[in-house]
Design goal:
Elements lengths: L7 E3 L4 H6 L5 E6 L4 H16 L5 E6 L4 H6 L7 E6 L2 E7 L4 H7 L1 H4 L3
Parallel strand pairs: 1-3, 2-3
Antiparallel strand pairs: 2-4, 4-5
Length: 113
């Protein structure tokens, strides 16, 4: 089981409120309990959620429990990281990565010009 303390979890029922209607950009990790790289990424996301709380919200979505949302956004692999702004996906990354690299890859989303 992925340790999720410090991270919000979205479901089919809460996705709209947790992600699409959020005031801040939202980084959604499409994850699954059986996904090893997802477990590797969990502490990175917890740290990022804590340190970047004023710039981005981090939410987990279990693809096995919310398959409709995964299909809607074309998620074919876990972990997929997708950033939503104003209810729309603006960037997508596949695979685990260290926090420093993740922040570099998300710099344009976190600090739009």
């Amino acid at each position: 089981m992925i340790r999720t303390e410090g991270l919000a979890e979205a479901t089919e029922e809460t996705f709209e409120a947790e992600v699409l209607e959020a005031a801040l950009p939202v980084l959604v990790q499409f994850t699954a309990d059986w996904c090893g790289p997802c477990r590797q990424l969990a502490p990175v996301l917890r740290e990022m959620a804590r340190e970047e709380a004023d710039r981005i919200r981090v939410v987990l979505l279990d693809v096995d429990r919310a398959p409709g949302i995964a299909v809607r956004y074309g998620v074919l692999a876990t972990p997929t990281l997708m950033v939503f702004r104003a209810g729309e996906p603006v960037t997508s990354l596949v695979g685990a990565r260290p926090k420093r690299r993740l922040l570099q890859e998300l710099a344009g989303v976190l600090d739009p010009a």
